[in-house]
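Q: Here's a chain of 154 amino acids. Please give me its 3D structure as tokens.
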Amino acid sequence: MRLKLLYAELKNDSECFSAALAALGEQKSHIAVLGTTSYSWVVSYLGVVNSGSVAVPLDALLPVEDLCELLNRADITTLVFDESKAQVASEAQKVCPGLKHVISMSDESAVEGALSLWKLIREQQPGFDYVPSPEDLATIMFTSGTTGKSKGVM
């Protein structure tokens, strides 16, 4: 694995993911990003917000049941996950009726029917151009919920 990445590569990868989301019909949708901090996570997050969709970053340390509940509460239609969270993606496919797509941050996934982030990116051309309006929602962050159920903050 290369340790040196260029800003241009990050821009191109995230724009290609934005284009892939649009091709899937997920522009302006709520899209969860679940996993540990990585280049793939950053590309996913930036690709979501730059496509005009709403990014919902989730705490990878939460239990499966809590994560599935947040997916439902946030009206998630696509879940982007790293393979360490494959169990969450598999369970979400069963209990989250609004979920249309699961996208693994790896080329291969243990989750049946999962799309590959990097395959989707390779199928697109850089240069996706979307200009959000100042009122557009970009991210929903969930609070820690220390005094009760976590709240989604826009």
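Q: Can you summarize the key feature?
A: The chain has five helices and seven strands.
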